[in-house]
Amino acid sequence: MAVNIVECIDDSVKIQNVIVSVSDKKGLDKMIKGLVEVNPDIKIYSTGGTFSAIKAMNIKQLKQNLIQISDYTGQPEMQGGLVKTLDFKIYLGLLSETYNEAHKADLQRTGAVPMDMVIVNLYPFRETIARPDATIEMARANIDIGGPCMIRASAKNFLRVAVVTNPADYDWVLDELKKTGGKLSLQTRFELAKKAFALTAEYDTAIAKYLNGVNFTEASKCYRKMN
Predict the structure, then answer these.
(1) What is the DSSP string of 14-68?
(2) pTM of the full predicted structure?
(3) Which CATH number fits domain 12-123+142-197: 3.40.1110.10, 3.40.50.1380, 2.30.30.40, 3.10.350.10?
(4) What digits encode the pLDDT tens for the residues 206-219?
């Protein structure tokens, strides 16, 4: 298998295109308003409830620059939100490399844009299984798929993309953007990537540990068998 080895990158990356899809909306209002304050031309691509929450902020500069991901990809969300962001255009935008001519051609061919930042946190799996009334079906429904995929893709490409997974990091990310005119350094992108991979590792570990503690008889009680 051929592997891309990158030799040329930018230390500072201007944040122009951002994907936002969060379950925990704590601090989101401040983060979005801060991004727009730093760069009034910023474009925000969002999904479902997050899109509605951002739209309800009534930020004048975002009127034309808040884009529903389904409009961007040309694919409506799957019922229940099961598939929202698992799309070639999304991952092309996350994994493309600045100085790779083939990647530039792919972006142009598909009408995709390079994503500079992803603000994502995950379905509340651990919070769900901590509930006294939790069933395996409730747990299964709260296993996030698209979120970890976007987080991993963005963290892998920290050479160009900043991935923000914790609302506690909003303030210091905004501070750097304000000081630099809307740019994030390679060091910041690298630190965010480390946090992102730690999050997905912990998330998958929690799922595996929970499932290993549930026997099949208990699991099967949630479902009405059709045959």
Answers:
(1) E--EEEEE-S--TTHHHHHHHHHHH-TT-EEEE-HHHHHHHHTT--GGGTTTEEE
(2) 0.94
(3) 3.40.50.1380
(4) 999 999 999 988 88
